[in-house]
Amino acid sequence: MKTLQLTHPDSIWTWNNSSKKKFSLWLPYLLSINPIPRKKHQFRFEYNGGEVEVDLKNVDFILIYGGKTNCTFPLEFLDLLNDLGIPLAIHRRNQPRPYFFSPSNGSDNVDILSKQIEFRTNERKRCFIAKTLIRARLEKMESLIAISGTTQEQLSAAISIAVVRNIEATATRRYWNAYYDALNIDVSRREAHIVNSALDACSTFMAGILLRWILFHKLAPTHGYLHQPTNYISLVYDLIEPFRYIFEQAVFASYQRLSENNTDENELIAESIKELKVLLNEEVWVPTMQITARRKNLMHGVVLALRSYLAGETKRFAIPAEGIRKGGRPIKAAFRIPGAK
Fold this sequence. Notes:
The chain has ten helices and ten strands. It is an alpha+beta fold. It folds into two domains: about 100 residues, CATH 3.100.10.20; about 200 residues, CRISPR-associated endonuclease Cas1, C-terminal domain (Four Helix Bundle (Hemerythrin (Met), subunit A)), CATH 1.20.120. It has a five-stranded mixed beta sheet with strand order 1-2-6-7-8, with helices on one face. A three-stranded antiparallel beta sheet has the order 3-4-5, with no helix packed on it. It has a two-stranded antiparallel sheet with strand order 9-10. Strand 9 and strand 10 form a beta hairpin. The chain is globular and about 60 Å long.
């Protein structure tokens, strides 16, 4: 299948952010990767269900998922991913964390990496960023649970990451109980279940989008603020917090539609990804900036917001989150959300 006709069900997404359309590939149960003779940058991917020919110059992210296979990765392929700046994510079934191969970063005149680490070692600034992220997360939890004024006050008063994480963990336990109760299933978030598999897959999908923008804007994906370890992409999981509700809604709606038909894991994952694409492409109102933008561009926006704050270009870290249309002045931001109206 040629990528010129790529509306492929196993492709993550296609969107146009520049004059040249690029897409992200979602490849299930990959079997082989082979260069196409006499065609520079072009490879043939064989997977469980078919094959696709791809010009890597048109790709911005690749995700491989599913069970174990005997696929090998040619060094020529990996070298080209690095040269073209294409991140590669691999997410196996029942794997606690996906793993990522990130292209090497180029130069950055602002030296944003030093600023990122400086803010990370300053407990007050680090705590402010973490509280901002969790405040946005708690706000979206209110679709299922009530967040008390006392909880909000405790979060505002928190002066350590440990306290912030404890507040988030307490609310999250209540949230997941309500989420599974609403779906009428008796399971916890860490147990094996097709809903959890779909949540993991959609989380990896969105993590890949954030990783793309984090790398593009020269931030270090392993240096987060809320998530402390540096042995995984902690900044990605920091910045996904305000947007988790999107893939949670996608899985929720998909499971409700399919549950009467004894759906299997792969079907639910495919349907959830399809629903997630729809949600991410919807336009929403962003009160802090008084603009309309697609949800997918808010994920780029949160990276821009953090970078602008770290660089001292914007006075405070304000997340471009969706909300109800109301009056007020937009924040003074030194960046613009791509595609905003």
